[in-house]
Amino acid sequence: MHVVIPLYPRFTALDAVGPYTVLAFAPGFTVTFAAERPGPVTDDRGSLTLTATASYADVPAPDVVVVPGGPGTLDVLEDEALLGWIRQAHEHTRWTTSVCSGSLLLGAAGLLEGARATTHWALLDFLGNVGAEPVAERVVEHGRIVTAAGVSAGIDMALTLLARASDATTAQSVQLAIEYDPQPPFTCGSPRTAPEGLVERALAIIT
């Protein structure tokens, strides 16, 4: 099973690295980072760089696509090199997926018309602009399109995908191998549970 994760400037690292870690641990899976041209691509914090080892042209027909999000998403909403590749790859994939604002790129590529989809809570209303039906859930499956909410939800999405692609036991084994046992110190990971005033402070961090 060949997974391709496209990279673009100012992606959010965990959006890409979370699913990468889950799927790279899975038996029979290989994961490739791709970009318009092979080479380094820097994340939204400016201090972490991943290397794309392939160009989009090198990987025209992956089994799985995982599109990460990040502040740079808005800069590539009309990047036809990326959108065209997503559109073409989707013709061949078993699953086309996204994390966070990566779903906006699926929508911009024309893949979410009438589809239930999710994204980061701060951008959920924007999904309607690309034809999707916004859903405030952590992982949303719509046929072979699977979208995840913000950042850390990419791990949940990848485990959900792995259970579909292999079986629940394989996904559970990987979850145990990476000791994914979330026990957050605070119950404020959603606007629904955040204390008063915290949403504004969180938005200031990500904008």
UniProtKB/TrEMBL annotation:
One Pfam family this sequence matches: DJ-1_PfpI
Single GO biological process annotation from the record: regulation of DNA-templated transcription
Domain of life: Bacteria
Span of domain DJ-1/PfpI: 2-163
PANTHER family named in the record: ARAC-FAMILY TRANSCRIPTIONAL REGULATOR, DJ-1_PFPI DOMAIN-CONTAINING PROTEIN
Descriptive protein name: DJ-1/PfpI family protein
Organism: Nonomuraea maritima
Taxon lineage: Bacteria, Bacillati, Actinomycetota, Actinomycetes, Streptosporangiales
